[in-house]
Amino acid sequence: MVFKEAGRDGYDYNLDREDVIEFFTQKINEVSPEPPVLGGKWLVTRFRFAGGNTVYVEYEDGHIARAFLLILTKTVATAPDYRIIGFFEPGPLGYKLLAGEDSAIGRPQEIYEHNETAGKWIKVN
C-alpha cells in the first residue's frame, strides 16, 4: 500500500516511503513525461519527500537528468494514484521548472538515495 493509516478516522494517512520508492524505481520509464535520449533507460537517483503527499523524483539516463514533482492520493492497490504537477531539468542553482508548478518549494524534505554497498534506499538527511 502506498499509504499507511495514521489515525482512526480514516482521513489521516502517511506515505509508505518504501512502496513509493519501489513503484517509481520500477516504473520510471513508463511514468516519465519524456523518453530517455539515445535509446537509453531512465534510472531514479533520488527521492525527496516534501511533506504530506508530495514527492520529487530525480532521475537520469546517463546523458541528461530530469525530475518531477508528483502528488499521491490514497489507493487500495499496490500501484499508487498520482498526478505529476511539475517537471524540471538541472539549472545553475538546482533544478529549473520546465512545466507545471513547484508547490512544494521551500518545504523541509526527507531525501532518499540508493546505497550500492548496502543494496537499498536510505535516508541521507
Description:
The protein has 125 residues and is mainly beta. It has one domain (3-30, 41-123). Helix content is 12%, strand content 46%. It has one helix and nine strands, in the order E-E-H-E-E-E-E-E-E-E. It has one helix at residues 17-31; strands at residues 3-5, 13-15, 43-49, 54-60, 65-73, 81-91, 94-100, 110-115, 120-123. Strands 7-6-5-4-3-8-9 form a seven-stranded antiparallel sheet, covered by helices on one side. The protein has a two-stranded antiparallel ribbon with strand order 1-2. Strand 5 (65-73) and strand 6 (81-91) form a beta hairpin. It is globular, with a radius of gyration of 15 Å.
Number of domains: 1
Q: Report the portion of residues in β strands.
A: over 45%
Q: Tell me the helix content.
A: 10-25%
Task: Evaluate the radius of gyration.
Answer: 15 Å
Q: Rough shape?
A: globular
Q: Give the helix tally.
A: 1
Give the ordered list of helices and strands. EEHEEEEEEE
Q: Number of DSSP strands? A: 9
